[in-house]
Task: structure prediction
Amino acid sequence: MRTYLSRVALAGLLITGCTYQPISAPTTAAHHPVAAQPEPDNWRELLPAQIAEVNRAASKWQDYDAAIAAGWEPFGGEEPLMGQHFHNPSAPDYVSGDLLDFSQPNNLMYATLNGKKTLTGVAFVVRIGEHEPVPAGFAGPKDAWHVHNFLAAINAATEDRPFVRTLAKWWMNDNYFSKGDNRYRLAMVHVWTETENPDGVFANYDRTLPYRKLGLPISWSQGASLVTARGLDIATPNGCNNALGGHAWIANLSGKQEKQLKAACARGAKRVKAALPRGQQAINQAAVSAWLDYAAVQENVLTQEQKQRISAMMEHGHHH
Result:
């Protein structure tokens, strides 16, 4: 098991900045090795039982207070279309080659709905090395893994912070490299256990969340894009703070840049809120417009170096 300090420090830095998405165009999927084990012929029979086991495990943590009492700790902020991640020092430290215990996810996700922390799903996190494949994970090809590169995260976040970089490298050496542990990439898969995700149980995001946060019918998310959902999310409570997230620190934004981004987000949120009384079509159209306008400002405000620093923290497009 990793120490409590190690887990918190590792996860906190990653989640702070790894959810950046280029907002004017989809991300090009990276191609990485995947686990070589052949899929069993009966994976369609195995997968429902595996998901059912995860659902049973998640049901224990539907009570947020009970989860906190059992040692689950938050790290990072509440991320758009996901919620806030929680870890537990006693949860499994999965590494490359381990079989997942579907009764023991090592991350929980909670979103704030109607002022209350509400479980949205769980995640399995597996530490892998530079050339190690993403885990085989669940039976079949449906589970969509994404990878956070912790070493790239440290290098990007501390590029112009030499003192912090020295401390971070000391920490990495003390907790990992000096022990012969070079597994500094975190492979992660989400499992949405509480509501039906229109993009599938293993989707990276849940685009129904902003609709639920605003008290809108979940059915209004049908056919709506992730761009729509992101635009809607900035109109939710703390939506603009969540949209900016840890990017301000990772990119080391100037005060002027941060002010421009917050102003653009506030304009978009106002536009969406003005459309709320006018029904589904007007709301979704306003959300798309709001997000694209915010995207344009972000594209213009951030330097190329800042964009690269944020994007370097996450590898995309892993499916097994």
Q: What stands out?
A: Residues 1-11, 13-34 have pLDDT under 50 and may be disordered.
